[in-house]
Write a structure and sequence with these properties.
Strands 15-16-17-14-13-18-19 form a 7-stranded mixed sheet, sandwiched between helices. Strands 10-9-8-11-12-20 form a 6-stranded mixed sheet, with helices on both faces. Strands 1-5-4 form a 3-stranded mixed sheet, covered by helices on one side. Helix 7 links the parallel strand 9 and strand 10. 53% of the residues are buried. By secondary structure, the protein is of the alpha/beta class. Helix 2 packs parallel to helix 8, helix 4 runs antiparallel to helix 7 and helix 10 crosses helix 11. The protein has 16 helices and 21 strands. The chain binds 2-aminohexanedioic acid. The site of 2-aminohexanedioic acid has 12 residues, from loops.
């Protein structure tokens, strides 16, 4: 590690300027905990208050900016992110631990998201309708929601911030952005790119730090009109309770316990590949991960054998080493949580394959992919989100039982099925109680131009992404005009 890197310090960005402050959090590489990327500001409640005030003050300027100005900023920023995909992908892999190809892909996706919403800024169309009264015209238009708190998790350090911030800006809102403490590096770069792309001061404010310190201001202030949050169910429910008295508009994306159904008629190669990527891609640290593999009897043993064989060949290593299939777990606390769930799964009667600590030359949080076989759907590992490289297998008799097990969860983010039967695929698409249904593709890894979100305990509020993002980020106005005297 070079001396330069050691001395890297990044401040919060409030009102367009570097904020003062003297509390810092080291940004540690989970592949090599001796590698400190830099020190990032740990904001206070008063920083958060200043950021809310700056966002409020700049709202008229941005809410009435031309769509062209908003489009240009987002488009320029998107171009820069795509151009710097190698460099930013390296930073992402280094601070979060997903592999370089995964990290680079996420950076490119973030750039594409910014450019997509740049285009959307120019398409904020409304409706003009004849009134039921003669001589009156009715117009339905969309105005910015206002000041929005964007609170993001550590597992997609640039794509999730991009898919919340880009539509917020496209529709004329101002933002206070609070990234997860573990991944301030990509967050800072994203804000820096956007400010250099021409965003006026105060439109996008960055408050890094602990949720305990800055969260109550960002979620409880009467000056905040909306909160877009992705993270745990517990935090989401706390935000729901704390923001209710202010009637703040909410968009909450929380956990998942996503089923992947594998039917007897599936192509075995497709089933194994879809399960591997869905369960263990990004170290399984995705709310869209396929964590419950619901497999019919006729293919169960062949599927488990083939999946195990592939899984045991996966190389778990430094996220930035060539040939690594799976990077480390994000930190020691998450690793302890993963291992706790593996112990519970074993105690409740599951048989564990893999799930071992792995030693590498550098000290990182390495865990090999884990498959728990012989489980039933009532076991803890099938009810609670682990958020690690852990999948369990539930054997079922037939499609009907598979569908019932798939739907028997308090969550409802996504679901998948691997089958060659059009009838089964069509039935599953209609009857799955999830917000997103995947047929013969992994449950994780979504497109950015279509809606994202789930049902039940997974999601609350309007959908994210694509054209649907405007439902959260705009207020509808219906105006009646009588041009002349009646
Ligand atoms: C994806 O699977 O492409 O936190 C995205 C998460 C989700 C994003 C998943 N909100 O894992």
């Amino acid at each position: 590690m070079s001396q330069d890197t050691r001395s890297l310090r990044r401040r919060n960005i409030i009102g367009g300027a570097d904020a003062s402050g003297d509390a810092w959090t080291p940004n540690v590489n989970p592949s090599d905990t001796s590698d400190v990327i830099g020190e990032y500001a740990r904001g206070s409640a008063s920083d958060a208050q200043e950021a809310v005030a700056a966002a409020r003050a700049s709202l008229p300027r941005w809410a009435f900016a031309t769509p062209q100005e908003r489009a240009d900023v987002l488009d320029r920023a998107g171009d820069e992110i795509v151009r710097r995909a190698d460099e930013l992908g390296d930073l992402l892999a280094r601070e979060e631990g997903k592999t370089l190809p995964e990290a680079r892909g996420e950076v490119v996706r973030a750039g594409q998201i910014l450019k997509f919403h740049g285009g959307q800024a120019l398409r904020n169309t409304g409706e003009v309708v004849d009134s039921i009264r003669p001589g009156v015209e009715v117009a339905v238009t969309r105005e910015p929601l206002g000041v929005v708190s964007v609170i993001t998790p550590w597992n997609f350090p640039i794509a999730i911030p991009a898919w919340k911030i880009a539509p917020a800006l496209a529709y004329g809102n101002t933002v206070i952005f609070k990234p997860a403490e573990l991944v301030p590096g990509c967050a800072w770069e994203l804000v820096d790119v956007l400010r250099r792309a021409g965003l006026p001061d105060g439109v996008l404010n960055l408050v890094m730090g602990s949720g305990r310190d800055v969260g109550p201001v960002l979620t409880g202030s009467p000056e905040v009109d909306g909160i877009s949050f992705t993270g745990s169910v517990a935090t989401g429910e706390q935000i729901l309770a704390e923001s209710a008295p202010q009637r703040t508009r909410l968009q909450l994306e929380m956990g998942g316990k996503n089923p992947l159904v594998v039917l007897d008629d599936a192509d075995l190669g497709v089933a194994v590949e879809v399960a591997l990527q869905g369960a263990f891609g990004s170290t399984g640290q995705r709310c869209t991960a396929s964590s419950r593999l619901v497999v019919t009897r006729g293919i169960h043993d062949r599927f488990v054998a083939a999946l195990t064989e592939q899984m045991l060949q996966w190389r778990v290593d430094d996220a930035r080493t060539d040939g690594t299939h799976m990077g480390p777990v994000v930190d020691a606390a998450q690793l302890a949580q993963d291992e706790r769930y593996l112990a519970i799964a074993r105690d409740e009667g599951g048989q564990l394959i893999g799930g071992d600590r792995v030693e590498r030359s550098a000290s990182g949080h390495y865990l090999s992919p884990a498959l728990v076989v012989g489980t039933d759907n009532s076991m803890t590992v099938n009810r609670e989100e682990v958020f690690g490289p852990v999948a369990s297998v539930v054997e079922v008799a037939d499609y009907e039982e598979a569908l019932a097990v798939a739907n028997a969860t308090e969550f409802g983010l996504c679901s998948g099925i691997v089958t060659t039967s059009l009838a089964a695929a069509s039935h599953f698409r209609r009857h799955s109680l999830a917000g997103m249904v995947m047929v013969n593709v992994p449950t994780a890894g979504v497109d950015y131009h279509v809606p994202f979100g789930g049902r039940r305990a997974s999601s609350y509020g309007p959908r994210e992404q694509g054209t649907y993002a405007k439902e959260f980020y705009t207020l509808v106005k219906t105006s009646y005009t009588a041009p002349g005297a009646p």
